[in-house]
Amino acid sequence: MEQIFFRGTVKVSYEDELGKMQVKYLHLVQRRGQQGQALVTLQLAAGATKKVEVDFIYPPDSTPPQVLTVETAL
After folding, report:
1. Which of 11, 21, 27, 72 meets the CB 3.0–4.6 Å disulfide criterion with 55?
2. Can you count the helices (H) and strands (E) in the chain?
3. Nearest CA-CA partner of 59 in 28, 34, 35, 37
4. How far apart are CA 24 and CA 57, in angstroms?
5. Is the pTM of this model over 0.90?
6. What is the pLDDT of residues 6-39, one digit of tens each?
7. What pLDDT score was predicted for residue 65?
8. Torsional sign, CA 58, 60, 64, 65
9. Alpha helices of the chain — where are they, by DSSP H?
């Protein structure tokens, strides 16, 4: 079994499609080399922008994450 590489809580704050601020707390457990699931998916019109904030809440025995990816989906 692969060693756990990251374990911790992630807080994601973002504005939804109706303009309302949303806050999600997600507890993640990831093994070395494992690709994570999307934390949030937003649909934006061409040229539009939205603020998204991600906070990592580290427990004392956690290893900080190595990569956070923001990407567009087609």
Report:
1. 11
2. 0, 3
3. 28
4. 13
5. no
6. 778 889 999 988 889 999 999 888 888 888 888 8
7. 60
8. negative
9. none
